[in-house]
Amino acid sequence: MNRPFSLRPSSKQRTVSAEEPGVAERVMNAFESILVKAGERAATLEAVAKLAGVSKGGLLHYYPNREDLVSAQLERFDELVLEDIRAMKAAAGGAVMHFLQTSLWSNSPLDKAFVAVNRLAPIAPAETQRRLADVQKQWLEVLEAEVGPDLALAIRYIGVGLFFNAVFHHGEPGNRHRRETDVADLVSLLRNVRGF
C-alpha cells in the first residue's frame, strides 16, 4: 500500500558534485522514463537503478529514498514550466502560437515531465494537483495578456486537449504533420475571430 507523499527536505540527500552530474541525471531520466511508460508502481528503486545502469547503492547515494526521487521529479517539472513560460512570453509568433504548437507531443523534456507528474498523482496528490493547477494558471495569465480573458480560456482548453490527444496518439505515423496543420488552421481561425 502506498504511503501519502509529503515534500520534506532530506538531510541525507547528497549534493551532486561537478565531477558526477551524469549519474544523478541518468537516475532522474530513468525514473521519469519509467513513470511515463509504466506508471508510478513500476518506478521502484530497483527498476530505476537498472535502467540508469547504476547499482541500487549508487542510486541511494544520490537519492536516499523514493520520496527524494519524487521531489526531484517535481522540481524538474517546476524548472521546465518556468522555461516554457519564459519562452511563451518571448515567442516571435506570439504566446498563442507558442502554446498551441507546444501542445503537440514532441517528446520534449516538458512533455515527458508533464506526463511523469500526472503519473505521480496517486502517491503525491496534493503536490501534483498544486503544480498542475499552477501551470494552468500561469499559461492562462500569459494568454490573457495577448488575447484577453475569454479567448485565453478557450485557447488554454484547446491546447490542453491537443496535448492529451497527442499523448494518446503520438506514435501513429503521419499524425504529427496533420496535427501541425490543424494547429496552424486553429491559429488562423482564432486570428480571424479575435484579430490578434
Residue share in β-strands? under 5%
Largest sheet entry: none
Stretches where pLDDT falls below 50 for ≥5 residues? 1-5, 7-19
Structural class: mainly alpha
Terminal Cα span? 51 Å
Question: How many beta-strand segments?
Answer: 0
Provide the residue-averaged pLDDT. 84
Amount of helix: over 70%
Question: What order do the SSEs take from the amino end to the carboxyl end, as H and E?
Answer: HHHHHHHHH
How many individual helices?
9
* Rounded Rg: 19 Å
Shape: elongated
Can you give a write-up of this model?
- The protein is an all-alpha fold.
- 71% of the residues lie in helices and 0% in strands.
- It contains 9 helices and no strands.
Features:
9 helices, mainly alpha, disordered N terminus, single chain, 196 residues
Brief digest:
By secondary structure, the protein is an all-alpha fold. The protein has helices at residues 21-38, 45-52, 56-62, 66-90, 95-101, 109-119, 125-147, 149-169, 175-194.
List the helices and strands and how they pair.
Blueprint: H1 21-38, H2 45-52, H3 56-62, H4 66-90, H5 95-101, H6 109-119, H7 125-147, H8 149-169, H9 175-194
Helix pairs in contact: 1-2, 1-6, 2-3, 4-5, 4-6, 4-7, 5-8, 5-9, 7-8, 8-9
